[in-house]
Amino acid sequence: MENHPGCVPGDFAAPRPRAGRPALSESRREAVRLEIALATVRLFQDKGIQATSAGEVAHSLGISTRTLWRYFPTKETFVRPLLTHSFDRLLAHLRNWPADRPLAEAVVAIGASAGSDLRHVRTVVRMTRTEPALRSVWLGVADGFSRALADVVARRDGVAADSLVAGVRASALGGAMVAAVEHWAWEEASAEGVTLAQVIREAVELAGAGLYENPR
Predict the structure, then answer these.
(1) 3-state SS track over 27-94
(2) Residue 163 in domain
(3) Is pLDDT larger for residue 23 or for residue 207?
(4) Is 202 among the domain residues?
(5) What pLDDT, in 10s, does the model give residues 127-159?
(6) Closest CA to 90 of 36, 182, 152
C-alpha cells in the first residue's frame, strides 16, 4: 500500500491552499477528487493496483504528486470519492422521497435509473474481492452510508438517530444495498444481462422478508 508519509489514513480534510493562491471552492475540490478517482480506476483496471504508482496517476491528470498527496493519504483512497459520490446521490434521493412511500421503493428506483453511471463503481467493487486495502476503503464508505441513512430514517419516523428503530431499519436497508452492489459486481451472472436494479429489488425483498421468514 503506497502511503504519503505526512498523511494519516482516514484523514480526508480538504488540502490547504498555498499562500498567494485563491482557495478552490468546495464544488471544485469535489470535482478534482472525482477526476482523480476516475483516472485511478482506469489505471488500476489497465495495470493492476500494485503496478500503478501515485506518480502515474498524477501524470495522467497533469498534476504533481505533491498535489495528489494533499488530497489523499494512501493510493487506495484515491477511488473513495467515486464511491461516496454514488452514495451521496442515493442519500439525496432518499431525503426527498415522499413520506407516504417506503424508502425501499426509493432504493429500487435509483438503482433502475443509475444506468452506466455506476460502471466505474462496479469495477472498484470487483477489485475489493482480492485487494484488502481497497476493500477497507469500500467498507468504510458503506459504513458511513449506513450511519447517514439512520438520520434519514430517524427524521421520517420521528425517532432519535441513535434509536434502535433507526439503527435496525438503516442497517437492513443499507446492508441490502451494499450486498446487492457486491453481488452485481462480483457474480458472473451480472455479465449476462442481470441489472443492478433487479439485484437491488431482490435484496430489498429479502431484507423485508425478515430473519425468521423463509422468502422462498
Answers:
(1) HHHHHHHHHHHHHHHHHHHHHCCCCCCHHHHHHHHCCCHHHHHHHCCECHHHHHHHHHHHHHHHHHHH
(2) yes
(3) 207
(4) yes
(5) 999 999 999 999 999 999 999 999 999 999 899
(6) 152
The DSSP annotation for 139-163 comes to HHHHHHHHHHHHHHHHHHHTS-TTS
**67: in domain:** no
- Residue 107 is given by DSSP the state H
CATH code for the domain of 101: 1.10.357.10
User: Residue 179's domain spans which residues?
Assistant: 79-209
In a domain, 110, yes or no: yes
What total of structural domains would you count in the chain?
A: 1
Radius of gyration of the chain, Cα coordinates, nearest whole angstrom: 19
**Phi, psi (rounded to 5 degrees) for 3:** -115, 155
Q: Which residues are registered as beta bridge partners of 3?
A: 74
Amino acid type, 53: S
Integer CA distances (angstroms), 68 to 29, 136, 152, 183, in order: 12, 20, 33, 32
Q: pTM surpassing 0.85?
A: no
CB 50, CB 3: distance < 8 Å: no
Please compute, for residue 96, the number of CA atoms within 13 A of its CA located in the half-sphere on the CB side: 7
